[in-house]
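Extended Data, panel c. Modelled sequence:
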Amino acid sequence: MKSLPKIVLLAALALLPLQVVWAEEKLPLPRTDEIRLDEAARLAAELGEEVWKGWSAAPFAVLLITPEREFLLRHPKPPADFRGEGGVLSRTRTLSPGMLATFPFEGTSTIVVGQAESTFVKTSTPWVLTVLHEHFHQLQQSRPGYFQDVNSLGLSGDDQTGMWMLNYPFPYKAPAVAEQFSAMSRRLAVALRARGKADFRAAAAAYLQAKQDFKKLLSEKDYRYFSLQLWQEGLARYTECRVARLAAAKAPPGAEFKALPDFTSYERVATSLEEGILARLLDAKLADDERNAFYAVGAGEGLLLDELSPGWQDRYFRERFQTDSYFPAER
């Protein structure tokens, strides 16, 4: 009789083949972090394939940083300094608790993230969606040839560390570039606000023309960098919005997650994310925000494409590192 609960658990898991299970036993983590990670896993299992085909096959390794310890979950080849049982390993903290990134760790694309309170997102629901933003980067990085093809863009110069992704010398402060970027961003905001209205297609066409005018101010190499950032980071931000909207419509939060004191509904966070994108587009400051200003443009394009070109996601991994070809030729 003592073995019955485990048998029941295994039977239940067999009925949920897509469920992401973090460990077979109780996680040796702070309870709040366990609940948050379970919620991220649940959303990935229930909604992932609807958002991006093939997402369920991506790695979901996580390195969670707490003030004292680092916890490694779902990693196939953990380093020797991580110790533990039950599928979760830990070591003394070595990384910043405010980290929020995804990169190869011991050969596996890994989300490296601090607790919600230590990161810029601060609370549970935005943190879960940000983890899924990073999980989308795991999908990008796990596709065949990703790293080689990124290198073939010819943007890294002499940098062999990958830091060129952050430090590429884009002409952020060139007055004409910054001015046109602001004009283009405002056009995108206008088009997004016109969704469902008679002037939507005209507004979308005006945005795309403004984007072409922006392109003319850049070298071919600089435009490749801009396009890569829209594709990689901007559409990861869009993914947060899409997951939040779908979760609000069809994947209500688990009881324990909903009971967290800092819980916010998915509907409310989805609205906040979209309003934040619009605000950034309307007040774009390329010279100040630099690369971060591209996130709102890429996210806005994803929302625009949902209206202009349904099913555009099927082209995402076939036509990589740019978004221009996803828009219909006739607008």
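The chain has twelve helices and five strands. This feature is highlighted in the accompanying rendering.
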